[in-house]
Each structure stands twice: as structure tokens, then as C-alpha cells.
Design a protein that fits this description.
Elements lengths: L5 E5 L3 H11 L4 E5 L2 H10 L6 E5 L10 H13 L4 E6 L4 H9 L4 E4 L4 H13 L9 H4 L5 H13 L6 E4 L6 H12 L7 E5 L5 H9 E2 L11 E2 L1 H4 L4 E5 L9 H10 L1 E2 L8 E2 L3 E6 L3 H6 L5 H7 L2 E4 L9 H17 L5 E2 L1 H9 L5 H15 L4 E2 L1 H5 L4 H4 L19 H11 L6 H19 L4 H8 L3 H13 L1
Parallel strand pairs: 1-2, 1-3, 3-4, 4-5, 6-13, 6-14, 7-10, 10-13, 15-16
Antiparallel strand pairs: 8-9, 11-12
Helix pairs in contact: 11-13, 14-16, 20-21, 21-22
This protein binds adenosine-5'-triphosphate and magnesium ion.
The site of adenosine-5'-triphosphate (ATP) has 18 residues, from helix 8 and helix 16.
Length: about 475
């Protein structure tokens, strides 16, 4: 068996992916993909997720826009939160590459890239690893700000009460760490298993047997009977990450387990009883998902008996400095170099930056600064190039007070439906609401100059939800 790390290359130009695989195969096992759907399927087939990915932003069906690449970053991290993602960027693509970093990419390299430099960069990036599990759960979660203190208090109160807990929070804010390193370890279940299943990372057809187990011969490939996660978690914790992605046909089955503990393996009639505590997480607004008919309200109420929200970093004040200090020392010791420090002015910039990609973005910036400025004092200018310019100019892009609003380009079908309704005809309310929704999304995108993250903020939803909504247009 190979001991080389696995590298995923995603580029729609076969010349580039072939050349890169050839050069990098000396140190990596390489898998390649040319587009997002193919990449999703590929990831599901792999036994272990790639440790690193090298991705292009312009992918089909929009090879001249970065959106597919942006969405891919979210999907890769949903699949494997620790994957090191390096973006390959064309010329004049700096802003996009920087934005990719707020989404969770760790570095970007310009095309055409020097294979030697690329190898060195990948080596360096892979040398930084996640912190070892803190022996005390209190040390796993850094932050003393009020929202963090409130979160800790809530988790302590809920820890031993067996009911499900729903963890909400933006991408990169620390939901995984809250579920695994904090909540589970606070409970009396701490010595029982903690099992995590990412509902977005597994093919919908496999979710049911994975959760509930299956009988021998239950489906093609089920050569022996298997226990599912509910069984294997025993009296421990079952963490259902990205619960918003749970397919509609599975939602009633999960609801049943939550209501009375009962479930069946796929292909069996015998009823089994689950004892594990369910903790779910989402970065989607589930209330919006309910309104859109994609998530059952009764399941949401069951899951959210206790719900906590992990604060975004921009609301955590000086915790930005505590986290900086923690990661700076950790990564310097991993890289066996002295830590960098920030000049007083740079420290102020650090405090002023909103970190739209939350702690994950902060951590990635620290990794880059550690590699670039070992033992040095980093200036504001050196720091600013690490930040996402499109986020920093956010406020300037708002329309001046009193400026005329762009007219919402309502779809003519909305008017048609209204007259149909007036003349006692029946209409499809969901379809009409979807048209309204689309009009508002298009208006928000227009107001934000096409910047999806800004548009998402204006609409009060997160970027992943916005991408999902936009994707649904192609399906209707
Ligand atoms: N308060 C914190 N203290 C220490 N480390 C943190 C904290 N919050 C987040 N991290 C670190 O930041 C990184 C991202 O966190 P995590 O993967 O838990 O985010 P997430 O909310 O699950 O994001 P996503 O929605 O993208 O899955 C991880 O390396 C995690 O260890
Ligand atoms: Mg997560």
C-alpha cells in the first residue's frame, strides 16, 4: 500500500492536470477531476479523503467565472474539514484567489506554476497539522468574549441532558470542535464512542444503510450484514454534520428514532433501539429550508430541543488575538521556527478585520504568516495582502442613502399568476414564490456587483444557501 499523501487536482484543462499529476506523482498519489459534479462522485468513491487539493476556480459550466471553484471549496471542506486546499489562479485573479482563502483555501499559486515551488508549497502546507486534542475540554475551545462564554455555559447546561442539540453557525466558526472536543467530552458519555457523519459528504443512497445498518443482500454490494452508526455509537454521541443536506425520504426515519429510539436496518423488519445522543450541525438556516419545503418542521423541532449558535469571529472581539496567539505558537513549534509577531499597527488591522471565513480563515492566515515571516515582525501592509479585499470594501459598496433602488425585475409569470388567481383559477404557490425569491436574489447580486458573499449577507442567508438556491434554478 502506498504511503504517499493523496492529492486531488481539479482543473478543466486536461493538459494542466496531466502535467501536474506527472510532476507531483513523485511525492503524491494523485486523483484528478475536471468539474464539480464529477469531483463529488469521485470523493464518495475514495476510501480516504485526499489530504490536499489543487483546484482551479474557473470550472464548467462557467469556466470564466470563479463561482464553481468557490462552491467546490465548500464542498471539499464539507467532505474533509482538514483538507489543505491550494487554488491555482490565472493572471489578474488575485481578488478571487484571496476570496477563495476566506472560503477556506489555504494558499494560492499563480499559473503557470513552477513545479519545484509547487511541491515545496504542498510539502510545507501538509507539515502543519490540526492541534492535538486538548486534555481538558475547556482548553479545546478558545475564546473569552461574551458570546463564547454564553456558548460554554449553554453547553455545560445541556451536556448531560440526553436530548438532541442543534449547533448552528457559519462555516469555519468551530461547530465540529464544539460537538466533538467540547460537548461530547463534557458529558458522562465521554468514554463511549463519538461518531460523526457528514450528511453532505456521502451519497444519498448510502446514507440510510450507513446510519441504520443493513441486512445481508439488502442491496447490490451488501455482501454481509452491517451495523450502522446508530448501533456503533452505542451510548455515545452521534454527530450529524450538515444536517440540512439530509434527503427528504430519510427525514421521517430520523424523526422516528428521535421520537422513540426505534429504527430498522435496511432490509430487516426487526426493530432496534438507539441509545446514542444525537448532535446535529448546520451552516444553513434551517428555518429557511423549512419554508422552502426542503426540511421537515417536526424534525427541526425535535433536533433543536436545545440549540446553540457558535458566534462568528467578527462578534468575538479580542478573541481574535487569543486565537492568533494560540495558532502562532502551535504552528511555529510544528515548523520548528520562532513565531512571527504583529506590529502594534498590524495588531489593530487584525482586530479590525471581519474574518468572514471565521476561525478557519484566521488559522490559515497564521499558517501562511508562519511560513513567510518566521521570527519576524509583520507590518500592516504585509498583513493586509492576506485579507479578502472584497470583504474589506464591503461598506463602501453600499448604495448611498436615498439613492434610487434598482427596480426588482419581477418575472412576468408572477403577474400572470395573479390575474389567473383573480379569475378563480388555481396557481402553484411554490413556483410563484420561487420566482419572487429569484427576483430578490438577482437584485441583491446586482447591488453587490456580482459578489456572492456580499449578496448573501444582504439577503440574510449564508453563501452556501445562496449557491444552493441559485443551483435550484437550473433544476426548474
Ligand atoms: N474557538 C475555537 N478555538 C480553537 N480552535 C477553533 C475554534 N473555533 C474553530 N477552531 C478551529 O477552526 C477550524 C474550523 O473549525 P470547524 O471545522 O469546527 O468549523 P465548522 O463550523 O465545522 O465549519 P463548516 O461549517 O465549514 O464545517 C478548525 O481547525 C477548528 O479546530
Ligand atoms: Mg464542520
Amino acid at each position: 500500500m502506498s504511503t504517499k499523501p493523496l492529492l486531488l487536482i481539479v482543473d478543466d484543462d486536461p493538459l494542466i492536470s496531466d502535467a501536474l499529476s506527472y510532476t507531483l506523482s513523485s511525492e503524491f498519489d494523485v486523483v484528478t477531476s475536471h468539474a464539480r459534479p464529477h469531483c463529488q462522485a469521485l470523493l464518495r468513491q475514495l476510501r480516504h479523503p485526499p489530504q490536499a487539493a489543487l483546484i482551479d476556480l474557473g470550472l464548467p459550466p462557467q469556466p470564466h467565472r470563479p463561482d464553481e471553484g468557490f462552491a467546490l471549496i465548500g464542498e471539499l471542506l464539507a467532505h474533509a474539514p482538514d483538507m489543505k486546499i491550494v487554488v491555482l489562479s490565472g493572471q489578474n485573479d488575485d481578488d478571487n484567489a484571496r476570496h477563495a482563502r476566506t472560503l477556506g483555501a489555504i494558499e494560492f499559486v499563480e499559473k503557470p506554476c513552477d513545479p519545484g515551488k509547487l511541491l515545496a508549497l504542498l510539502r510545507r502546507t501538509l507539515a502543519f497539522s490540526a492541534p492535538a486534542t486538548a486534555s481538558n475540554p475547556q482548553d479545546a475551545l478558545i475564546g473569552e468574549s461574551l458570546p463564547m462564554q454564553r456558548l460554554r455555559l449553554q453547553l455545560t447546561q445541556y451536556a448531560n441532558l440526553g436530548f438532541p442539540v442543534l449547533i448552528e453557525g457559519e462555516s469555519g466558526s468551530g461547530k465540529d470542535i464544539v460537538a466533538n472536543h467540547y460537548l461530547h467530552r463534557l458529558t458522562a458519555r465521554r468514554d463511549a464512542p463519538f461518531l460523526a457523519l457528514n450528511c453532505a459528504a456521502i451519497s444519498p443512497a448510502l446514507l440510510e444503510p450507513t446510519l441504520f445498518g443493513h441486512a445481508r443482500g439488502a442491496f447490490t454490494g451488501a455482501t454481509s450484514a452491517r451495523a450502522g452508526y446508530f448501533e456503533e455509537a452505542g451510548e455515545g454521541t452521534l454527530f450529524l454534520d450538515e444536517i440540512g443536506e439530509l434527503p427528504p425520504d430519510l427525514q421521517p426515519k430520523l424523526l422516528r428514532v428521535l421520537e422513540n429510539g426505534e429504527y430498522q436496518r435496511v432490509g430487516e423488519t426487526q426493530t432496534r433501539v438507539a441509545k446514542a445522543r444525537v448532535v446535529a450541525a448546520t451552516n444553513r438556516d434551517l428555518r429557511q429550508e423549512i419554508k422552502a419545503g426542503r426540511f421537515r418542521a417536526d424534525l427541526y423541532h425535535r433536533l433543536s430541543v436545545f440549540s446553540v449558535s457558535v458566534p462568528p469571529l467578527r462578534e468575538m472581539g479580542r478573541d481574535r488575538l487569543l486565537l492568533l496567539d494560540h495558532f502562532r505558537k502551535l504552528y511555529a513549534s510544528q515548523a520548528k521556527c520562532p513565531p512571527f509577531s504583529l506590529s502594534p499597527e498590524a495588531e489593530q488591522c487584525w482586530l479590525d478585520y471581519a474574518f468572514p471565513g471565521n476561525v478557519r480563515e484566521l488559522r490559515n492566515i497564521v499558517i501562511r504568516l508562519t511560513a513567510r515571516y518566521p521570527g519576524e515582525v509583520v507590518s500592516p501592509d504585509q498583513l493586509r495582502i492576506e485579507f479578502d479585499a472584497s470583504e474589506a470594501v464591503d461598506r463602501d459598496n453600499l448604495l448611498p442613502q436615498g439613492a434610487p433602488l434598482p427596480k426588482i425585475q419581477g418575472d412576468p409569470r408572477i403577474d400572470t399568476a395573479l390575474s389567473h388567481l383573480q379569475s378563480n383559477g388555481e396557481i402553484d404557490l411554490d413556483a410563484i414564490l420561487a420566482l419572487w425569491e429569484r427576483s430578490y436574489i438577482e437584485a441583491a447580486l446586482a447591488l453587490s456587483g456580482g459578489n456572492v458573499s456580499q449578496a448573501a449577507r444582504r439577503l440574510g442567508i449564508n453563501r452556501t444557501t445562496l449557491y444552493n438556491r441559485m443551483e435550484s434554478w437550473h433544476r426548474t
